[in-house]
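Deliverable D5.2: sample structural annotation.
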Amino acid sequence: MKAAVYYGKKDIRVEDWEDRPLQSDEVKVKVAWIGICGSDLHEYVHGPLNTPEEEDEFTGRTLPFPLGHEFTGIVDEVGSDVTRVAKGDRVVINPALTLDNQPEGFDNTEGVATLGLNRPGGFAQYVNVPETVAHKVPEDLSLKYAALTEPQAVAIQAIKESGLKFGETVAVIGVGPIGIATILGAKGAGAKRIVAIDLSDERLNLAKEMGADAVYNSKDYTSDQILENEGFENGFDVTFEVAGVAPTFVQSIDLTRARGQVVILSIFSKEINWNPAQLTKSFVNVKASLGYTYDTFLDTMELIENERINSPKMVTSEIKLDEVPDGFELLANDKKQAKILVNVDGEDN
Protein backbone atom coordinates (compact mmCIF):
# COMPACT_ATOMS: atom_id res chain seq x y z
CA MET A 1 0.00 0.00 0.00
CA LYS A 2 0.97 3.64 -0.34
CA ALA A 3 1.96 5.59 2.80
CA ALA A 4 3.72 8.80 3.83
CA VAL A 5 6.50 7.28 5.94
CA TYR A 6 8.41 9.27 8.57
CA TYR A 7 12.14 8.55 8.78
CA GLY A 8 13.28 11.49 10.90
CA LYS A 9 13.71 15.25 10.91
CA LYS A 10 12.39 16.81 7.67
CA ASP A 11 12.23 13.35 6.10
CA ILE A 12 8.80 12.04 5.03
CA ARG A 13 8.65 9.82 1.95
CA VAL A 14 5.55 8.69 0.03
CA GLU A 15 6.31 5.07 -0.82
CA ASP A 16 5.08 1.49 -0.70
CA TRP A 17 4.90 0.33 2.91
CA GLU A 18 3.40 -2.64 4.73
CA ASP A 19 2.47 -2.98 8.40
CA ARG A 20 2.71 -6.22 10.36
CA PRO A 21 -0.19 -8.69 9.92
CA LEU A 22 -3.54 -7.85 11.51
CA GLN A 23 -3.72 -9.03 15.14
CA SER A 24 -6.75 -10.81 16.61
CA ASP A 25 -7.86 -7.73 18.60
CA GLU A 26 -7.32 -5.25 15.74
CA VAL A 27 -9.25 -3.87 12.81
CA LYS A 28 -7.85 -2.75 9.47
CA VAL A 29 -9.13 0.70 8.58
CA LYS A 30 -9.23 2.07 5.05
CA VAL A 31 -8.27 5.66 5.83
CA ALA A 32 -10.58 8.37 4.46
CA TRP A 33 -9.47 11.69 6.00
CA ILE A 34 -6.61 12.65 8.30
CA GLY A 35 -5.39 15.96 9.70
CA ILE A 36 -1.80 17.11 10.12
CA CYS A 37 -1.43 17.79 13.84
CA GLY A 38 0.90 20.16 15.67
CA SER A 39 2.58 17.17 17.34
CA ASP A 40 3.17 15.65 13.89
CA LEU A 41 4.72 18.95 12.84
CA HIS A 42 6.96 19.00 15.96
CA GLU A 43 8.24 15.55 14.97
CA TYR A 44 8.86 16.70 11.41
CA VAL A 45 10.63 19.96 12.29
CA HIS A 46 12.49 19.00 15.49
CA GLY A 47 12.27 15.21 15.77
CA PRO A 48 12.44 12.46 16.41
CA LEU A 49 11.00 13.60 19.75
CA ASN A 50 8.31 11.15 20.82
CA THR A 51 8.70 8.63 18.02
CA PRO A 52 10.91 5.58 18.73
CA GLU A 53 14.35 5.43 17.12
CA GLU A 54 14.87 2.25 19.14
CA GLU A 55 12.23 -0.35 19.99
CA ASP A 56 9.40 1.34 21.88
CA GLU A 57 9.00 -0.34 25.28
CA PHE A 58 5.23 -0.04 25.07
CA THR A 59 4.45 -0.94 21.46
CA GLY A 60 7.61 -2.73 20.35
CA ARG A 61 7.74 -0.58 17.18
CA THR A 62 10.54 1.51 15.70
CA LEU A 63 10.83 4.11 12.95
CA PRO A 64 10.34 4.37 10.06
CA PHE A 65 6.55 4.29 9.96
CA PRO A 66 3.66 6.64 9.05
CA LEU A 67 2.74 9.36 11.52
CA GLY A 68 -0.84 10.58 11.93
CA HIS A 69 -3.50 10.23 14.63
CA GLU A 70 -6.38 12.53 13.58
CA PHE A 71 -8.22 10.25 11.20
CA THR A 72 -11.37 8.53 10.07
CA GLY A 73 -12.07 5.66 7.71
CA ILE A 74 -14.04 2.52 6.96
CA VAL A 75 -13.39 -0.83 8.62
CA ASP A 76 -11.99 -3.09 5.92
CA GLU A 77 -11.13 -6.20 7.94
CA VAL A 78 -11.57 -7.38 11.54
CA GLY A 79 -9.49 -9.67 13.73
CA SER A 80 -10.89 -12.93 15.06
CA ASP A 81 -11.61 -11.52 18.55
CA VAL A 82 -13.22 -8.24 17.46
CA THR A 83 -16.80 -7.62 18.64
CA ARG A 84 -17.27 -3.81 18.88
CA VAL A 85 -17.18 -2.92 15.19
CA ALA A 86 -17.79 -4.74 11.90
CA LYS A 87 -16.52 -4.59 8.35
CA GLY A 88 -18.02 -1.58 6.57
CA ASP A 89 -18.47 0.55 9.71
CA ARG A 90 -17.54 4.23 9.40
CA VAL A 91 -15.17 5.02 12.27
CA VAL A 92 -13.19 7.80 13.89
CA ILE A 93 -10.03 6.87 15.78
CA ASN A 94 -9.22 7.85 19.37
CA PRO A 95 -5.44 7.36 19.20
CA ALA A 96 -4.81 6.93 22.95
CA LEU A 97 -3.36 3.49 23.67
CA THR A 98 -3.24 1.72 27.05
CA LEU A 99 -1.41 -1.36 28.28
CA ASP A 100 -4.40 -3.64 27.82
CA ASN A 101 -5.97 -1.68 24.96
CA GLN A 102 -8.79 -0.61 27.23
CA PRO A 103 -11.05 2.16 25.91
CA GLU A 104 -10.38 4.68 28.68
CA GLY A 105 -7.44 6.19 26.78
CA PHE A 106 -6.03 9.22 28.53
CA ASP A 107 -8.15 8.55 31.62
CA ASN A 108 -5.34 6.12 32.41
CA THR A 109 -2.01 7.84 33.05
CA GLU A 110 0.03 4.64 33.25
CA GLY A 111 1.42 3.21 30.04
CA VAL A 112 -0.32 5.60 27.70
CA ALA A 113 1.03 5.82 24.16
CA THR A 114 -0.31 7.38 20.99
CA LEU A 115 -1.19 5.80 17.68
CA GLY A 116 0.86 7.55 15.01
CA LEU A 117 3.68 8.42 17.41
CA ASN A 118 4.50 5.17 19.22
CA ARG A 119 3.24 2.87 16.45
CA PRO A 120 2.19 3.31 12.80
CA GLY A 121 -0.51 5.89 12.17
CA GLY A 122 -2.93 7.05 9.53
CA PHE A 123 -0.87 8.71 6.80
CA ALA A 124 -1.44 5.54 4.81
CA GLN A 125 -4.13 3.92 2.69
CA TYR A 126 -4.72 1.33 5.41
CA VAL A 127 -3.78 1.11 9.09
CA ASN A 128 -4.26 -1.56 11.76
CA VAL A 129 -5.60 -0.31 15.09
CA PRO A 130 -6.91 -1.91 18.31
CA GLU A 131 -10.69 -2.29 18.06
CA THR A 132 -11.09 -0.30 21.31
CA VAL A 133 -9.93 2.93 19.64
CA ALA A 134 -12.36 2.75 16.70
CA HIS A 135 -15.66 4.54 17.32
CA LYS A 136 -18.62 4.53 14.96
CA VAL A 137 -19.37 7.83 13.26
CA PRO A 138 -23.04 8.93 13.14
CA GLU A 139 -24.52 8.68 9.65
CA ASP A 140 -25.28 12.40 9.47
CA LEU A 141 -21.66 13.38 10.23
CA SER A 142 -19.20 13.22 7.34
CA LEU A 143 -15.93 11.34 7.77
CA LYS A 144 -14.22 14.54 6.67
CA TYR A 145 -15.43 16.57 9.62
CA ALA A 146 -15.36 13.66 12.07
CA ALA A 147 -11.58 13.77 11.52
CA LEU A 148 -11.59 17.06 13.47
CA THR A 149 -12.75 15.27 16.63
CA GLU A 150 -9.25 14.56 17.96
CA PRO A 151 -7.73 18.08 17.75
CA GLN A 152 -10.94 19.71 18.93
CA ALA A 153 -11.10 17.26 21.86
CA VAL A 154 -7.67 18.47 23.03
CA ALA A 155 -9.08 21.99 23.30
CA ILE A 156 -12.38 20.86 24.86
CA GLN A 157 -10.50 18.95 27.57
CA ALA A 158 -8.42 22.05 28.37
CA ILE A 159 -11.59 24.14 28.58
CA LYS A 160 -13.13 21.60 30.95
CA GLU A 161 -9.96 21.64 33.07
CA SER A 162 -10.05 25.44 33.20
CA GLY A 163 -13.50 25.57 34.79
CA LEU A 164 -14.47 28.30 32.31
CA LYS A 165 -17.87 29.76 33.19
CA PHE A 166 -20.40 31.37 30.91
CA GLY A 167 -19.64 35.09 30.58
CA GLU A 168 -15.97 34.93 31.60
CA THR A 169 -13.04 36.45 29.69
CA VAL A 170 -10.40 34.38 27.89
CA ALA A 171 -6.92 34.97 26.51
CA VAL A 172 -5.35 32.45 24.10
CA ILE A 173 -1.58 32.76 23.64
CA GLY A 174 -0.43 31.01 20.49
CA VAL A 175 -2.95 30.55 17.71
CA GLY A 176 -1.69 27.60 15.74
CA PRO A 177 -4.11 24.72 15.06
CA ILE A 178 -4.80 23.91 18.74
CA GLY A 179 -5.01 27.60 19.63
CA ILE A 180 -7.66 28.01 16.93
CA ALA A 181 -9.53 24.97 18.27
CA THR A 182 -9.38 26.54 21.75
CA ILE A 183 -10.92 29.76 20.45
CA LEU A 184 -13.73 27.79 18.80
CA GLY A 185 -14.29 25.77 21.97
CA ALA A 186 -14.24 28.79 24.29
CA LYS A 187 -16.74 30.55 22.05
CA GLY A 188 -18.99 27.50 22.20
CA ALA A 189 -18.60 27.40 25.99
CA GLY A 190 -19.97 30.94 26.36
CA ALA A 191 -16.86 33.07 26.90
CA LYS A 192 -17.84 36.75 26.98
CA ARG A 193 -14.68 37.98 25.29
CA ILE A 194 -11.82 36.08 23.67
CA VAL A 195 -8.46 37.70 22.99
CA ALA A 196 -5.80 36.05 20.81
CA ILE A 197 -2.07 36.76 21.17
CA ASP A 198 0.69 35.67 18.80
CA LEU A 199 3.79 36.88 16.96
CA SER A 200 2.30 36.29 13.52
CA ASP A 201 -0.11 38.79 11.99
CA GLU A 202 -1.26 36.09 9.56
CA ARG A 203 -2.24 33.79 12.41
CA LEU A 204 -3.88 36.64 14.27
CA ASN A 205 -5.97 37.51 11.23
CA LEU A 206 -7.02 33.86 11.07
CA ALA A 207 -7.87 33.90 14.79
CA LYS A 208 -10.11 36.92 14.20
CA GLU A 209 -11.90 35.03 11.42
CA MET A 210 -12.37 32.07 13.77
CA GLY A 211 -14.08 34.12 16.45
CA ALA A 212 -11.52 36.03 18.51
CA ASP A 213 -12.94 39.39 19.60
CA ALA A 214 -9.54 41.12 19.59
CA VAL A 215 -6.00 40.19 18.55
CA TYR A 216 -2.59 41.44 19.72
CA ASN A 217 0.87 40.91 18.30
CA SER A 218 3.35 40.41 21.16
CA LYS A 219 5.94 42.39 19.20
CA ASP A 220 3.72 45.46 19.51
CA TYR A 221 1.99 45.06 22.89
CA THR A 222 3.21 44.20 26.38
CA SER A 223 0.97 42.30 28.77
CA ASP A 224 0.20 45.52 30.65
CA GLN A 225 -0.76 47.28 27.43
CA ILE A 226 -3.07 44.43 26.44
CA LEU A 227 -4.81 44.54 29.82
CA GLU A 228 -5.09 48.32 29.72
CA ASN A 229 -6.45 48.27 26.18
CA GLU A 230 -9.03 45.63 27.12
CA GLY A 231 -10.01 47.42 30.34
CA PHE A 232 -9.14 44.32 32.42
CA GLU A 233 -6.72 45.83 34.92
CA ASN A 234 -7.15 42.76 37.15
CA GLY A 235 -6.53 40.30 34.33
CA PHE A 236 -8.41 37.67 32.31
CA ASP A 237 -10.46 35.01 34.05
CA VAL A 238 -8.83 32.19 32.07
CA THR A 239 -5.68 32.12 29.96
CA PHE A 240 -4.68 29.25 27.67
CA GLU A 241 -0.95 28.93 26.94
CA VAL A 242 -0.62 27.21 23.55
CA ALA A 243 2.81 28.41 22.40
CA GLY A 244 5.21 26.39 24.54
CA VAL A 245 8.10 28.79 25.17
CA ALA A 246 9.33 30.54 28.32
CA PRO A 247 8.15 34.10 27.49
CA THR A 248 4.58 32.98 26.78
CA PHE A 249 4.47 30.87 29.95
CA VAL A 250 5.41 33.94 31.99
CA GLN A 251 3.00 36.08 29.98
CA SER A 252 0.11 33.70 30.63
CA ILE A 253 0.47 34.28 34.37
CA ASP A 254 0.92 38.03 33.94
CA LEU A 255 -2.35 38.25 31.99
CA THR A 256 -4.48 36.33 34.49
CA ARG A 257 -6.36 37.77 37.46
CA ALA A 258 -5.68 36.69 41.03
CA ARG A 259 -7.18 33.22 41.57
CA GLY A 260 -7.85 33.03 37.85
CA GLN A 261 -6.79 29.98 35.87
CA VAL A 262 -3.92 29.37 33.46
CA VAL A 263 -4.05 26.12 31.47
CA ILE A 264 -0.96 24.91 29.66
CA LEU A 265 -1.80 22.76 26.63
CA SER A 266 1.32 23.34 24.54
CA ILE A 267 4.25 21.03 23.93
CA PHE A 268 7.48 22.48 25.30
CA SER A 269 10.34 21.24 23.11
CA LYS A 270 12.94 22.73 25.50
CA GLU A 271 13.26 23.14 29.25
CA ILE A 272 12.62 26.64 30.62
CA ASN A 273 13.96 28.59 33.57
CA TRP A 274 11.18 30.08 35.66
CA ASN A 275 10.83 31.49 39.17
CA PRO A 276 7.76 30.10 41.01
CA ALA A 277 7.68 33.31 43.04
CA GLN A 278 5.63 34.69 40.16
CA LEU A 279 2.77 32.49 41.36
CA THR A 280 3.08 33.29 45.04
CA LYS A 281 2.93 36.99 44.23
CA SER A 282 0.05 36.76 41.78
CA PHE A 283 -2.23 34.08 43.35
CA VAL A 284 -2.79 32.66 39.85
CA ASN A 285 -3.63 28.97 39.48
CA VAL A 286 -1.74 26.94 36.87
CA LYS A 287 -2.54 23.50 35.54
CA ALA A 288 -1.66 21.49 32.45
CA SER A 289 -3.90 19.53 30.12
CA LEU A 290 -2.73 16.69 27.88
CA GLY A 291 -5.03 14.95 25.45
CA TYR A 292 -8.57 14.21 26.63
CA THR A 293 -10.64 11.67 28.49
CA TYR A 294 -12.62 8.94 26.77
CA ASP A 295 -15.87 10.83 27.44
CA THR A 296 -14.48 14.13 26.19
CA PHE A 297 -13.52 12.54 22.85
CA LEU A 298 -17.06 11.22 22.31
CA ASP A 299 -18.63 14.46 23.62
CA THR A 300 -16.57 16.42 21.09
CA MET A 301 -17.73 14.31 18.17
CA GLU A 302 -21.31 14.96 19.26
CA LEU A 303 -20.66 18.70 19.57
CA ILE A 304 -19.31 18.77 16.00
CA GLU A 305 -22.20 16.63 14.74
CA ASN A 306 -24.77 18.96 16.34
CA GLU A 307 -22.90 22.08 15.15
CA ARG A 308 -22.51 23.33 18.71
CA ILE A 309 -18.87 24.00 17.83
CA ASN A 310 -17.99 25.18 14.34
CA SER A 311 -14.86 23.01 14.06
CA PRO A 312 -15.10 22.70 10.23
CA LYS A 313 -14.28 26.39 10.13
CA MET A 314 -10.67 25.60 11.10
CA VAL A 315 -10.00 23.67 7.86
CA THR A 316 -7.82 25.90 5.69
CA SER A 317 -6.47 23.41 3.11
CA GLU A 318 -7.23 19.97 1.68
CA ILE A 319 -4.55 17.84 0.03
CA LYS A 320 -3.98 14.27 -1.20
CA LEU A 321 -1.77 11.53 0.27
CA ASP A 322 0.92 12.13 -2.36
CA GLU A 323 1.11 15.74 -1.19
CA VAL A 324 1.71 15.01 2.52
CA PRO A 325 5.42 16.04 2.52
CA ASP A 326 4.45 19.34 0.89
CA GLY A 327 1.60 19.66 3.39
CA PHE A 328 4.03 19.50 6.31
CA GLU A 329 6.13 22.22 4.71
CA LEU A 330 3.00 24.29 4.10
CA LEU A 331 1.90 24.04 7.74
CA ALA A 332 5.43 24.82 8.95
CA ASN A 333 5.87 27.92 6.80
CA ASP A 334 2.45 29.35 5.96
CA LYS A 335 1.05 31.04 9.06
CA LYS A 336 -2.35 31.36 7.40
CA GLN A 337 -2.87 27.61 7.83
CA ALA A 338 -4.84 26.19 10.75
CA LYS A 339 -5.91 22.64 9.90
CA ILE A 340 -4.72 20.85 6.78
CA LEU A 341 -6.81 17.77 5.98
CA VAL A 342 -5.56 14.94 3.78
CA ASN A 343 -8.12 13.17 1.60
CA VAL A 344 -6.50 9.73 1.55
CA ASP A 345 -9.07 7.63 -0.31
CA GLY A 346 -10.02 10.35 -2.79
CA GLU A 347 -13.72 10.13 -1.94
CA ASP A 348 -15.94 12.91 -0.59
CA ASN A 349 -17.26 10.91 2.36
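Annotation notes: The first helix runs from residue 38 to 46. The chain has a mean pLDDT of 94.
The annotation will be released with the project's public dataset once the embargo ends.
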